[in-house]
Amino acid sequence: MDRLYQRTFDQIHLPEERAAVVRKALASRCSQTEQEVIPMKHFKRLPRPVTAAAALILVFALSATAFAYGQRFYSFMSGGSVQDITDENGQVIGVQGSVDPDLAVPPVELRDDGRLYLTANGENADITGLCSDETPYIYECTGSDGLRHTFIIGGEPDAVGWAEFIWDEDGLPTAGTSQFATPEGRDGAPWFDAAMEQLNLPW
Amino acid sequence: MTETEFLSLFDRYHDMVYRLALSCTRSTQDAEDIVQTVFLKLLDVRTPPTPGKERAWLAQVTVNASRDLLRANRRRQWEPLDADIPFSAPEEGALFDAVMALPDKYRAVVHLHYYEGYSYAETAQILRTSPSAVSMRLHRARNLLRSSLEEDTYGPSVSKDL
Description:
Number of helices of chain A: 3
Shape of chain A: extended
CATH class of the largest domain in chain B: Mainly Alpha
Structural class of chain B: mainly alpha
Strand order of the largest sheet of chain A: 7-8-9-10
Number of domains of chain A: 2
Radius of gyration of chain A: 22 Å
CATH topology of the largest domain in chain B: Rna Polymerase Sigma Factor, Chain: A
Distance between the termini of chain A: 45 Å
Strand content of chain A: 25-35%
Order of helices and strands of chain A: HHEEEEEEEEEEH
Radius of gyration of chain B: 16 Å
Structural class of chain A: alpha+beta
Oligomer: heterodimer
Strand content of chain B: under 5%
């Protein structure tokens, strides 16, 4: 298999003329002033890849309102934090921030025996078969911040995704972070939408 | 990174990026675009990859760029492969077609492991998943390839090696 695969893909090359065009444009971009740079094809800026975690932003009418960063941070047990933002009257209107996926601590782990374990909050529970592409596994706990944290796990063991939500003292969902393991991201994660409906979450 | 160093990386790795992007996207046009996107990122990145780690960095960025594209163009998953590559032997064409027919989540794993020679752990790091998940995906991909190739005229000779 290895050798045949090598032989097969060894015959695949970026077409020479295309390589030359890209190389020339890159070289131009390396060394020339902006006016001299050979224009490159425009690429639409796309969202982060599916594995990237993103802090969900809960901001209402932000476009019409000046905002400032508030004093409060919300820390995810799975890593990263967001900060609240306030309007000109000091009213909290949401949270904002980003989470580095490289620093995330997934709440779930696929072990060598092929079984899926919940590891959030120091748990070590075998949840194999309790979640799937369609069905979420939901776990809740109180964090060291005294707030309710909800973990959602879904997908098949070889492509498991997860999310974490934090609720404030008034019982309102405040911040969320998620990682999807399939190329389609959230679109390929019906378990996530099922959990959103079950928990009555607005995202 | 100097211009010479940068262009040397382009010369050395553009085919690697192209093959991986083609495996992920199944589209030669998209793969060509991704080559440009990936090397532009290398040019613009504030902290370039550590010397000696460029290949893994490029592989990771390629996988991410491919996933972005697949997600933005989901309809393409149902489109026929646009590559028309004249392979030197029929079993190579059979294997290529079978690999390209694998679901999205298996193709990058198969390519990184079987072509680029990355271990389970290295492949997992590039794909930001666990080695167990890589092992499971490879196992399932091999099963799918085997059944797909057994139906092909040139497949049986290939499938027995899987």
